[in-house]
Amino acid sequence: MGKVIICASQKGGVGKTSTATALASIFAQRGYRTLIIDCDQQCNTTDTYRAETEGVATIYDVLLDESRISISEAIQHTECGEILAGDSLLRQADEKLKGCVDGLYRMADALEKCNDYDYIFIDTAPAMNSILHNCLIAADEVIIPVTADRYALQGLSQLNETIRAIKKRQNPKLTVAGLLLTKYNGRANLSKAVRASLEKVAESMNTKIFDTSVRECIKVKEAQAQKQTLISYAPKCTAAEDYNRLADELTG
Ligand SMILES: Nc1ncnc2c1ncn2[C@@H]1O[C@H](COP(=O)(O)OP(=O)(O)OP(=O)(O)O)[C@@H](O)[C@H]1O
Ligand SMILES: [Mg+2]
């Protein structure tokens, strides 16, 4: 199985989807066999890839449907790359998974049978729920996007506790790849106090703040509105440049 990297934060709008879609397209462009999985019922990644959600198999069928089809049966091949589409039915997931003995291990089980990829990126919803637990139990690495502002720390301690517990009990290989500053604006820089607190959080997660910050860039919004990946819409913009540097950091 390839490396599974999840973008996670229960805080909304911090750049999870932008990061997952940018990295997946860059890794595909660099020749890695790459899959993106949309685990958010909002289906923003699915929209960006212009993948179908109606009348096709989705992540719901893989994790929750009685038939439990395999990932390879549910993949859509789009111009942007290969995707396992999201599904608005995921909003029922918590209730359905609760009380199933294997309820937290569905993603790990599905990925275990999927050997076709070097990198699998997973976009998740801004929520602390069973789907996120499933993803953390299945993942190798977590990228935690944080907005470069005074609210940067919101929600991080709860996420940290969850990651610690899962690492201890269910997935010892789980590591936090790093905290990623997004929507970074050099002029309105992070205050020293916030950066120091973020560095503390990173330390307690045994990780770092990535050297690369993703600069605020209007093309990210435009690409999302146009339902295109940033890398196809504006491959040379500052954010695309930053995501390429982040990809370099991830591959070392
Ligand atoms: N570097 C950036 N520069 C400018 N705008 C950005 C940047 N990154 C993300 N955005 C914009 O911020 C908004 C939130 O980004 P995104 O959808 O990636 O966050 P998210 O964490 O996935 O949100 P959610 O929690 O709702 O899933 C979007 O409108 C996106 O276009
Ligand atoms: Mg999102």
Q: What does this entry look like structurally?
A:
With 252 residues, the chain is α/β, with parallel strands linked by helices. It has one domain: P-loop containing nucleotide triphosphate hydrolases (Rossmann fold, 3-Layer(aba) Sandwich). It is 40% helix and 15% strand. It has a 7-stranded mixed β-sheet with strand order 3-4-2-5-1-6-7, sandwiched between helices. α1 crosses α12 and α6 runs parallel beside α7. It is globular. The mean pLDDT is 95. Adenosine-5'-triphosphate binds next to α1 and α10.
The parts where pLDDT drops under 50 for at least 5 residues are none
CATH class: Alpha Beta
Strand order of the largest sheet: 3-4-2-5-1-6-7
Distinct small molecules bound, one entry per kind: adenosine-5'-triphosphate, magnesium ion
CATH architecture: 3-Layer(aba) Sandwich
CATH H-level superfamily: P-loop containing nucleotide triphosphate hydrolases
Note the total helix count.
12
Number of domains: 1
Average predicted local confidence, pLDDT: 95
Task: Chart the SSEs and their pairings.
Elements: E1 3-7, H1 16-29, E2 34-39, H2 44-48, H3 59-63, H4 71-74, E3 76-77, E4 82-84, H5 93-97, H6 106-112, E5 119-124, H7 130-138, E6 141-147, H8 156-169, E7 175-182, H9 192-204, H10 218-225, H11 230-233, H12 238-251
Parallel strand pairs: 1-5, 1-6, 2-4, 2-5, 6-7
Antiparallel strand pairs: 3-4
Bound molecules: adenosine-5'-triphosphate and magnesium ion.
The site of magnesium ion has 5 residues, from helix 1.
